[in-house]
Design goal:
Helix 1 crosses helix 2, helix 4 crosses helix 6 and helix 5 packs across helix 6. The protein has 288 residues and is an alpha+beta fold. 38% of the residues lie in helices and 25% in strands. Strands 1, 2, 3, 4, 5, 6, 7, 8 and 9 form a nine-stranded antiparallel β-sheet that branches.
Length: 288
């Protein structure tokens, strides 16, 4: 998988002055566009679209300093419709406009070309199982919140604090299958997975029961799930669980992620220093 992903990166590098379609990159990597975006984001630490933008402006920056093309020619070559649009994007990455950079020979920022390799540290094991699950409902309370890559999501924390105990008890009573009890469910993430883009967050349970009228409902069709278990100090045991799934498990196993909600079940120790976590990721067999 990583060899194919690097072939896709080669394609990006040779087409920086041309339109780049994520679907074409996914075909090179022999996977779905959905999984390709998810895997790239986890491995690179930035969304695919942001990497391509930074690489284009890195290469464009070198051409600006070389002085062999006009600024407008460079802007058009790298996909900008006007000199003004190019200047805004250039300044956002380099901290200086292209005209000033050319006049002063300013130092510019560089996005290095990426390549990927899998490093297995062997310091911990990842427990997983594959589950075929019938259709079910996610029932509880929903909020539209911004995506936060690291640390506590303040919008989610505030939303959960606002659910009164009586409502939380009624939600909990609806749980009738795995994963049991209150879970955190994320759905409808922006394909770019960029910081600040929005997603649906459910503080809910997994059930086949009918939902009360004052509850939010997400219908989930039957499908296959990769289920990962992790235990350890809180919050460290949780912070890198999702990352490890996509940077270690998926590249090493014949599965890929598929569209659908992600479900996280967390159980804290009495003193909140330890946690048991179970993460459900929609999955399917990868294309051979």
């Amino acid at each position: 998988m990583l060899e194919r992903l690097n072939q896709a990166i080669d394609h990006v590098e040779s087409h920086l002055d041309q339109p780049i379609d994520a679907a074409d990159l996914a075909r090179i990597a022999v996977t779905s566009e959905y999984h390709f975006r998810r895997l790239f984001s986890a491995l690179a630490g930035i969304p695919l679209s942001e990497y391509i933008r930074r690489r284009r402006l890195t290469v464009a920056g070198a051409e600006v300093l070389a002085g062999e093309r006009t600024l407008l020619d460079i802007a058009v070559r790298y996909g900008y419709s006007s000199g003004e649009a190019f200047a805004r994007a250039f300044r956002a990455v380099h901290g200086v406009g292209p005209g000033e950079a050319r006049r002063t020979g300013a130092a510019l920022h560089s996005q290095p070309r990426m390549s990927f390799r899998l490093i297995i540290e062997g310091s911990s094991s990842m427990r997983y199982r594959i589950v075929d699950k019938d259709e079910f409902r996610v029932v509880g309370k929903k909020a539209r919140v911004p995506l936060v890559h690291e640390g506590v999501n303040p919008a989610i924390a505030e939303f959960v604090r606002g659910i009164d105990p009586e409502t939380l008890g009624r939600i909990t009573a609806l749980s009738d299958q795995e994963p049991a009890g209150i879970v955190a469910v994320t759905d409808l993430l922006d394909p770019s997975r960029a910081e600040g883009t929005e997603l649906d967050y459910y503080h809910a349970v997994v059930t086949c029961a009918e939902a009360p009228e004052d509850m939010d409902v997400l219908a989930v069709p039957a499908g296959t799930w990769a289920v990962f278990e992790n235990s350890g100090p809180f919050p460290q045991a949780l912070q890198y669980l999702w990352r490890d799934v996509f940077t270690q498990w998926f590249p090493s196993n014949p599965y890929q992620s598929r569209p659908g909600p992600e479900i996280l079940r967390v159980r804290l120790s009495h003193d909140a220093t330890q946690a048991d976590a179970t993460l459900w990721i929609p999955a399917e067999r990868a294309t051979a």
